[in-house]
């Protein structure tokens, strides 16, 4: 007689519907599909989903719901299930895509995707989803709206610049663009005020954000984006996980005698990389000790300025994570003082200066 271990419900989510697959795994590792269905992607459908699962769940075994983060379409059902005390895991779409490819599926449809997700949830130990607090959700909405308006303003500014230098000018369009840019400026200022007020009124966020803005290069808006896009750094158990989430993890291209370029993956949250672009310049410009030393070292080794600035972006992200996680005050001379204390420590063979710097950062 087979002994079953746990259930998993795979949800393939679209704007209108949820394709559902309930599967179970036994002690031999065999996955069996128990039932499939489709429900509307709205509150009545969520209630029907929970009732449907209860009817087909014959054994009192652990149950997890697994879905992909498909824009905003997954958020409503994820919140509903969380409020019903259900275990929910959410994956980045590329992870699920590569997993399904590894199973050898040649076709792709909603039913196959739901079945693949339920199988993945049973075969792998996936982290459970933790929803953002209401203030962090509000902060994320504000910062993303700020980014959208900033991009629109940049487009209008570029269009105005092109118009001024074109062979045929149009005063009418120029006036329109000038008024449009003024509207964007007013809206951006209002959003920045709203972001500041939201942080000021949150007794948990305020002291942590105040500690991060003391880092040279990180302003209030930069910190707000970092906090909102990482859910207050919740769910990151180590620096490597955070680096991968932001797309700063290194991808090598080497096999046998072939040695290609080494680069960052850029497969992660692009908003984090975008917001850290200018802070990296400012950290070096205003002589933040740790970042300036890292920039100099990488630039001398590679001769590529942007590569050095990307290293500084990663360093700022890790500094923010360490300060937030440990709740300590920012000390610009911390790493220098730590290195001075550790001069008597003999590094192991093969330890590089970058590895030592990362180890020092982990002490924060």
List the total number of helices. Answer: 15
**Can you tell me the residue ranges where pLDDT is under 50 for at least 5 consecutive residues?**
341-364
Q: Work out the number of β strands.
A: 9
Q: What percent of the residues sit in helical stretches (DSSP H or I)?
A: 55-70%
- Mind describing the biggest β-sheet? 5 strands, mixed
Q: What does this molecule look like?
A:
The protein has 364 residues and is of the alpha/beta class. Helices cover 55% and strands 13% of the residues. It has helices spanning 43-56, 75-83, 93-102, 110-123, 134-164, 171-200, 205-212, 220-229, 239-246, 270-275, 277-285, 289-302, 305-326, 334-341, 353-361; strands at residues 4-13, 17-26, 31-40, 63-68, 87-91, 250-251, 254-255, 258-259, 263-264. The chain has a five-stranded mixed β-sheet with strand order 3-2-1-4-5. Strands 6-9 form a two-stranded antiparallel ribbon. Helix 5 runs antiparallel to helix 6 (171-200) and helix 11 (277-285) crosses helix 12. The relative contact order is 0.07.
